[in-house]
Design goal:
Phosphoribosyl-aminoimidazole Synthetase, Chain A, domain 2; 60s Ribosomal Protein L30, Chain: A; seven-stranded mixed sheet; 2 domains; six-stranded mixed sheet; 322 residues; globular; 13 strands; alpha+beta
């Protein structure tokens, strides 16, 4: 939903109603932070996936189950949280046992892999939608937020960008790819990897972080707004997979990386003094990362190609509204 989603949240929900003292950080970041003890914050996030809006109607049940859990765990990763608990609200048009078996198997598989317990939820009848609330723990003072970056900090991203957006185009028949590339790209759409280990490793190193759900440009914009900075983005350094680069032109690949949705990689900033510690920390958890820019004073994003400013018309990914 990108910009429209955040405008609605700001207008109708942010800062409304009673504000408890144990709410360290409320609406406006990847998770809320609640003080549950003197030494621990509770990170809470909720996401809803709706058929035909957040995933195509013909998406396999196993892919829906995996993604529904993974996108919530990705929010926890962006805060540096240890994932702990999950609740699930499932709305189904009918009780299809074969579909439920595949869906539930994927939910259980992802929870088991990341050490998360499904603790409750609800089921009801209606158009297919999945709402998950994930909760995790962070030592007080170690949380990552969008608002801690400063001019001069370096901009990094995990993994590769644009694959899921191209995977969606393949599923919808808007693009064509070789069989090997097609399988890889569609799997990147259906089975994102929440970077929880990387999020833990970034505590005390990163100055700000966010997960990329609406495209690099839009989500970088959230960091810049919260941190009151601008950014220079080095286009030649964008990490692009061989499958992506082998399927579309460089210009199309850049647009997919900048404005495509569903990457669920971590975008984060690191002060100069912490760059060495970053390489060591992420090497230990086996996550590839690339430096793709640097923050500066002012506002907005400047796109540079080998040092030369270029003009790009980029809009963050917005899910369709019906």
């Amino acid at each position: 939903m990108a910009s429209r989603e955040f405008a609605l949240i700001d207008s109708y929900f942010k800062g409304k109603g009673h504000q408890r003292k144990d709410v360290v950080l409320g609406i406006g970041d990847d998770c809320a932070l609640l003080a549950v003890s003197d030494n621990t914050l509770l990170a809470v996030t909720t996401d809803t996936l709706v058929a035909g809006v957040h995933f195509p109607e013909n998406t396999p049940a196993r892919a829906i189950g995996h993604k529904a859990v993974a996108v919530n765990l990705s929010d926890l990763a962006a805060m540096g949280a240890e994932a702990a608990w999950l609740s699930l609200a499932l709305t189904l048009p009918e009780a299809d046992e074969a579909w439920l078996a595949e869906f539930s198997a994927a939910v259980v598989e992802v929870c088991d892999y990341y050490g998360v317990t499904l603790v409750g939820g609800d089921t009801t009848r209606g158009p297919l939608s999945i709402t998950i609330t994930a909760q995790g723990k962070i030592p007080t003072g170690k949380q990552l937020t969008r608002g801690g970056a400063k001019p001069g900090d370096w901009l990094f991203v995990t993994g590769t960008l644009g694959d899921a957006a191209l995977g969606l185009a393949l599923v919808q028949g808007r693009e064509q790819a070789s069989s090997d590339n097609r399988e890889y790209l569609i799997n990147r759409l259906h089975y994102p990897t929440p970077r929880l280990a990387a999020g833990h490793s970034l505590r005390g190193i990163a100055s700000a972080a966010i997960d990329i759900s609406d495209g690099l440009a839009a989500d970088l914009g959230h960091i810049l707004k919260a941190s009151h900075c601008g950014a220079n983005l080095f286009m030649e350094r964008l990490p692009l997979s061989k499958a992506l680069s082998g399927t579309v032109s460089q210009e199309a690949a850049w647009q997919l990386a900048l404005a495509g949705g569903d990457d669920y990689e971590l975008l984060f900033t690191v002060p100069e003094a912490q760059k060495g510690a970053l390489d060591t920390a992420l090497a230990h958890c086996g996550v590839k990362h690339n430096c793709i820019g640097q923050l500066r004073g002012g506002e907005g994003i400047s796109f540079l190609d080998h040092g030369q400013t270029i003009e790009l018309d980029v809009h963050g990914y917005e899910h369709s509204w019906s």
